[in-house]
Amino acid sequence: MKELTIISGKGGTGKTSVTASFATLAPNRVVVDADVDAANLYLTLAHKTIHSENFIGGSLAEIDPALCTQCGDCLERCQFGAISEDFVIDPIACEGCKVCVHFCPEDAISFERQVCGEKFLSETDNGPMVHARLGIAQENSGLLVSALRQQAREIAKKKGIPLIILDGPPGIGCPVIASITNSDALLIVTEPSMSGMHDMERVKSLADQMRVPTYLCINKSDLNQEKTDAMKAFALEHNIKFAGEIPFDREVTASMNANKSLVEFSQGPAAQAMKKVWQNVSKYVNETMDVLK
Prior knowledge:
By secondary structure, the chain is of the alpha/beta class. It is built from 10 helices and 9 strands. The protein has helices at 15-25, 73-77, 99-103, 141-159, 174-180, 194-210, 225-237, 251-257, 262-265, 269-289, and strands spanning 2-8, 30-33, 48-63, 109-124, 127-134, 163-170, 185-190, 214-219, 241-246.
């Protein structure tokens, strides 16, 4: 069982479109939507939800007015301005540091675990899909990503599924680190722009720290050939396998509107290029890790 994580340095590069197409092309896999802050993979993969459960994340402080003497100790100690002058804690501003709980002389502040979101297990044509919805303004997205990955591994092991495909979050923060730690391969999806180049470089730096083999896909590659060529040169110089490029194609947006993956919806140039990228990624991973058979 191996894990392929698809990632980008920022949102909007086409990462989820690539994941949806890979999930359609892979004959037997578990797909995970690890972009829990803005989960949308389920919109492009026909599925039936078979199980859901609450995600219990961090804890929040709450003052019991019956016990509180309004001494002001917690108000002075809170570094996040989460406690009002009438001694009510703002749940959004509270960072869960527990300082107020520890120092309250009346033990008037509780610290209960919170429901931060919901996890789902769904069935698709090519295998299970694990996804989630993080609550508004909730923290612990990294913890939720780790929980989804663990669930996907258990399913893959139980059903003998050889591959897990993860739609990772954008950026390089905590949920991204949670999505690529101990992954077997990482595919960077970027676009030919100055910001795309910068984001690719910082994601590659993170992948190097995690010691994860890295591949590159350039989306909308024909919009700026100079930047596309520069990205290919960067990949060659920094030991990144080039998986291919996908041209700009309005069929991509049309497939989203139709709630289908690109390769399921279209036979156009972007869809054909997407299939080649999948073949290349499969080939590369086969060569290095003997997976995706």
